[in-house]
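Summary of Year 1 activities. Much of the first year was spent building the evaluation harness for sequence design. The harness presents a backbone, in tokenized form, and records the residue chosen at every position. We chose the following record to illustrate the format because it has been used consistently in internal testing since the harness was completed.
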């Protein structure tokens, strides 16, 4: 799987911020070909278009907090 994160530059134009493998994924040895991935996560009330540190690095559980917008595949 691949994750493409887009954003905007100082002039308001669309740019690719990150393009590469999903940083939080797990391949199950007992189920060949089965992968669980967390491409992006934000805390409740946090904008999805934030900049800076990748929020998926802080996630320790694939079960989201109440009202947290989390995308998983």
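For this record, the design step produced the sequence shown next.
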């Amino acid at each position: 799987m691949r994750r493409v994160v887009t954003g905007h530059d100082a002039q308001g134009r669309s740019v690719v911020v990150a393009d590469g493998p999903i940083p939080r994924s797990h391949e199950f040895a007992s189920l060949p070909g089965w992968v669980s991935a967390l491409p992006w996560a934000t805390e409740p009330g946090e904008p999805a278009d934030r900049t800076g540190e990748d929020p998926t690095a802080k996630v320790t559980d694939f079960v989201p907090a109440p009202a947290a917008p989390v995308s998983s595949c």
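Residues 24 and 38 are 5 Å apart (CA to CA). Quantitative recovery figures across the full test set are reported in Table 2.
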